[in-house]
C-alpha cells in the first residue's frame, strides 16, 4: 500500500478548505478500523471554526500547527464501551486510518497526542465542553500541505527476530 510508505507528518497547510466529500472519506476510513470485539468506541468532532482551532492549538505544548489548519479532528472515546481497556488501541487504529486516507486524498495530516496525558485531555475537554460520557483521545490537524516531506526510512532488519 503506497500510503504506508508515503505518509509523513504535515504541520504546514495552505489556506484551502477541505471539501465535505473528503471529510466524509476520512470518517469512512476512520470507522473502517477494526476494534476489540468490534466495539467501535470512537466519536469524532470535525472542527473548522477558526477560533476553536486556535483554542485547541493551545491545549498541548505540541499542537500549535492546529491554529493554521483548516480542519481539526478530535477523536473521542465513548467511556461506556464494551472493553474500555482496549479503547485507546482501537482509536489509535482509527487515527492511523485517517492519516493514511488523508495522504491518499492529497491532504496533509498530523496526529497531535492528547491521551494519556491527563492535563491535555482535560484541556481539550474544557474547550469542547465534552459531555462526561466521552473523553478526548487525540487531535488531528488536516489540510492541503504547504510543505513537502519525504518519509524517513526506518526499516531496520535488526529489529526482526526469527524463531525457526
Ligand atoms: C501517538 C502520537 C502522538 C504524536 N503527537 C504529536 C504532537 O503532539 N505534535 C506533533 O507535532 N507531532 C506529533 N506526532 C507526530 C510524530 O512526531 C511523527 O509521527 C514522528 O516524528 C515520525 O514522523 P513522520 O510522521 O513524519 O513519519 C505524534 C505521533 C503519534 C503516533
Describe the structure.
The chain is α+β, with helices and mostly antiparallel strands and 164 residues long. The chain has a single domain (2-147), classed as NADH Oxidase, CATH 3.40.109.10. It contains 5 helices and 4 strands. The chain has helices spanning 2-6, 20-31, 50-56, 87-104, 118-128; strands spanning 42-47, 71-78, 108-113, 134-143. Strands 1-2-4-3 form a 4-stranded antiparallel β-sheet, sandwiched between helices. The longest helix is centred in the middle third of the chain and has 18 residues, at 87-104. The model has no long low-confidence stretch (mean pLDDT 97). Bound molecules: flavin mononucleotide. Residues 8-9, 11, 60, 62-63, 110-113, 149, 151-152 line the site of flavin mononucleotide.
Amino acid at each position: 500500500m503506497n500510503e504506508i510508505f508515503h505518509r509523513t507528518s504535515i504541520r504546514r497547510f495552505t489556506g484551502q478548505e477541505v471539501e465535505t466529500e473528503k471529510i466524509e472519506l476520512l470518517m469512512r476510513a476512520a470507522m473502517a478500523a477494526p476494534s476489540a470485539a468490534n466495539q467501535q468506541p470512537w466519536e469524532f468532532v470535525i472542527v473548522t471554526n477558526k477560533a476553536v482551532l486556535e483554542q485547541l492549538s493551545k491545549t498541548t505544548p505540541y499542537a500549535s500547527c492546529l491554529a493554521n489548519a483548516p480542519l481539526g479532528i478530535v477523536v473521542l472515546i465513548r467511556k461506556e464501551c464494551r472493553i474500555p481497556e482496549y479503547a485507546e488501541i482501537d482509536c489509535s487504529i482509527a487515527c492511523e486510518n485517517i492519516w493514511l486516507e488523508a495522504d491518499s486524498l492529497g491532504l496533509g495530516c498530523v496526529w497531535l497526542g492528547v491521551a494519556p496525558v491527563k492535563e491535555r485531555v482535560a484541556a481539550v475537554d474544557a474547550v469542547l465542553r465534552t459531555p462526561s460520557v466521552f473523553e478526548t483521545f487525540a487531535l488531528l490537524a488536516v489540510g492541503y500541505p504547504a510543505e513537502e516531506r519525504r518519509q524517513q526510512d526506518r526499516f531496520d532488519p535488526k529489529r526482526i527476530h526469527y524463531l525457526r
